[in-house]
Amino acid sequence: MKRGRRADGEGTLSPDLRKVIRAHRLWLDTDGRRGARAELQDHDLRDQDLTGVELSGADLTGADLRGARLDRARFRLARLRGAHLDGATIRAACFDGADLGLAVFDRAQIADTRFEPIQIVGDDGGTVRAEWPARLGGARFRRARITGCSFRGADLQNVSFKSAEIVDCDFENARLQPPKAAPAANQNGKIGLSACDPRALHAALGLSGADRATAAIPSASIQHSP
């Protein structure tokens, strides 16, 4: 996002929320020298249009984002632990390195969105000191539609995708819990995953029509948790 540019949905927000978002953007642009980090813990953001907002590094722990529009929003390294995103519309957003543990995405529409690791670089700006994964442990995606998303390297332990529709997603090197249950096809022929685990995902690939109903996941990419 260019400095000083207003996000697409920002004009529909309350003056107080716009002020918080602008101060946060300034905080990011100046490496914390000016502005202020967005502290939106337990904040009521239901049905808000947050299209294109820059909230990387913000704290939205427990925030209520039910029905919100988060298209092209950026939440890199943000805290959304326990946040409620039920029924949210999320397209081309970025949650790289974010903490989404115990977050609820039930019935959300999620497309072309990234949940990948973020590289932590040294003071020289070039040396990679560590990779910080997106952490979704215990999150819930029941009856969500998830299309074209990347969960590469994400922590997905104890995540529930029960009755979710997963299409053309990338789970390479994702950290998954040990197998607990095999998937079953629902009445619409989609794959209902009772848990995010290697056996369920691989079994789904072998079902008729799985190429349009679930993610294409190479066997070498699945890692069991110790």
Automatic annotation (TrEMBL):
Domain of life of the organism encoding this protein: Bacteria
Keyword Cytoplasm: no
Segment forming the signal sequence: none
Gene3D superfamilies, per the entry: E3 ubiquitin-protein ligase SopA (2.160.20.80)
Family annotation (InterPro entries): 5peptide_repeat (IPR001646)
Xref: SUPFAM superfamilies: Pentapeptide repeat-like
Pfam families: Pentapeptide
Alphabetic keyword roster: Repeat
Protein name per the record: Pentapeptide repeat-containing protein
Phylogenetic lineage: Bacteria, Pseudomonadati, Pseudomonadota, Alphaproteobacteria, Rhodospirillales
